[in-house]
Amino acid sequence: MLTGRRSYRFKANLTLTGVFLLVLVSLVLQHHYPQVFFLQLLTFTLEAALVGGLADWFAVTALFRRPLGWPFHTALIPRNRAKVIEGIKHLVEENLLSSELIEAKISEIHPTRQWAAATPPETVHHTALAFSRTLRTRLRAFQPRAAAGSLAKRLTDYLAETPLTPQIASLLQTVWHNQSRSMNFALTLLIRKVSAPDTKEGIKHYLNAHKETELADSPLNRTLFRLLESVDALNLEDAADALQEQLCTSLHALYNPAHPLRQLIDSSIQTLLDSLNSDDVNGLEQWKKEVLLSVPWERILAQTIATLQQELALDEAPLSRWFDSQIANLFKRFAEDGMVQQSLDHFIQTSLLRLARTNHHWVGQIARNTLETFSNADLNAFIEEKAGNDLQWIRINGSLVGGLIGFALFLILHVVSNF
Q1: Using one digit for the tens of pLDDT, what is the confidence trace for 393-404?
Q2: pTM here?
């Protein structure tokens, strides 16, 4: 079953063929009955319809190819290929996808407000967690050595160019005002590290190395150690466990703000702040030049990044939980703050409008580049696909209008001949 452009071409061809056959029939009838007025009218009308149909068939076909090989002013589209492509480019760029139309559509979009209005709070929370996990996965994919090299260079350049005293004072002031939360967070990370199995192995290794040193220095020590080991009074495994447990207990005790050591740390920070606020800062700047600028920052940063990556890899790690909570709070505040949403929508719209205005010429350029890859046959098929139905109706209308004109002309001539 024919559809679309081909069905209309079939109808136009069928109309032209039908008119041609009717002309033959009417000529045969008129030959046998030459004086019948109706047959004369019918023959004249059908001949005019045939001429109109043939003329329009020739005209439509001449747009795309040479009908019957006729070389004069035919195949107009292939011959004027550059003009046709430029015309389509102009049509697309100035009418179908004009700059004004694109800007009007961009001005209608409000993506963040629409998202916030259509998203329930629980979905916002789940989205935030999914985003946080994805971000943590991306962060874990960084190569510590490569990232550390770039960061180390920026850090050393910054240290060399920036006075250190005001920066440290500002940092310590921030720590001082948030010292309870900062200390608890640092303690949590430290306790996790101390509780790890590799820490216990490190303690055991240290004790064993110390034992070997003592044994090598004194025969009496060797005798005493063998005696203690024989009665199981000296067990490095148990000693390592005890030391690790004691370290964890001591660190847990520091959660208490009244702990003497914690108060000493707070007092030391305040003393340092007081000294930084004094006029005598040359010593600190000299220390920066002699110490900070000679530190192997790349190696330290690489180790720090690797440690952070390990923490981020564990969903239940304190750092991961803190990271997830911050992202969730950020999403929640964003979903509830209409001003922030409006500002972000305005930023998106402004960016898109700037992009559209700067690169609008690419709309027509893309259309032209695409059409220039078409062969003549492809270009003909493309235009026929878009305007083929109307062109085939021109052919059908040519037969109809030609027949009506022939009918009217015959009657006029008949009336005139009778005067």
Answers
A1: 888 888 888 889
A2: 0.42
